[in-house]
Specification:
The chain contains 7 helices and 2 strands. With 154 residues, the protein is mainly alpha-helical. It has a two-stranded antiparallel ribbon. A hairpin with a 2-residue loop joins strand 1 and strand 2. The longest helix has 35 residues, at 86-120. It starts with a helix and ends with a helix.
Length: 154
């Protein structure tokens, strides 16, 4: 309970910041620090992965939290009476009990992932284009060119 009171406000503040607000800072730091070590192509791929993760993780986290939080107290009492171990509680109570909420969170992540990919697959920094192969990068490229026919056909 005390862990919940300490972590929940921190998670809420982090989740309230949209990915486009801090992705340029993450991209710049990664390009500067890891660009020479890993190469530009791999750093761009990592930026896409981080962006997709940050765009989707909060949906699943909040839904999982609400699914666990809304489990009836009686279920916890049954676990205590049967002296289930921590791992047995996870396997027999938490995962099945929270699964509907987790699936709802996973369905919600589709829109978040799409938005995260939109800002990370096709970056323009100081008039220089950085692109990672992907559907969103292709669409962004055609939109930049003003080629509506190819946008609609992609």
């Amino acid at each position: 309970m005390c862990c919940e009171k300490a972590l929940l406000p921190i998670i809420e503040v982090l989740a309230s910041l949209p990915v486009p607000a801090y992705l340029p800072m993450i991209a710049a730091l990664m390009m500067i620090s890891l660009g020479k070590i890993l190469g530009l192509r791999l750093v761009l791929e990592l930026i896409v992965l981080i962006s997709a993760y940050l765009s989707t993780a909060w949906y699943v986290l909040y839904n999982m939290y609400s699914g666990v939080k809304n489990l009836p107290r009686e279920f916890w009492y049954v676990c205590e009476i049967n002296k289930l171990s921590f791992y047995q509680k996870i396997r027999k109570l938490l995962i099945p009990g929270a699964m509907p909420a987790i699936i709802t969170g996973l369905i919600s992540t589709v829109g978040g992932a799409w938005g995260g990919l939109q800002i990370s697959e096709y970056l323009i920094i100081q008039d220089k284009v950085y692109s990672v192969p992907g559907l969103v990068a292709l669409l962004s490229h055609y939109i930049t060119l003003g080629d509506i026919v190819r946008v609609l056909s992609a």
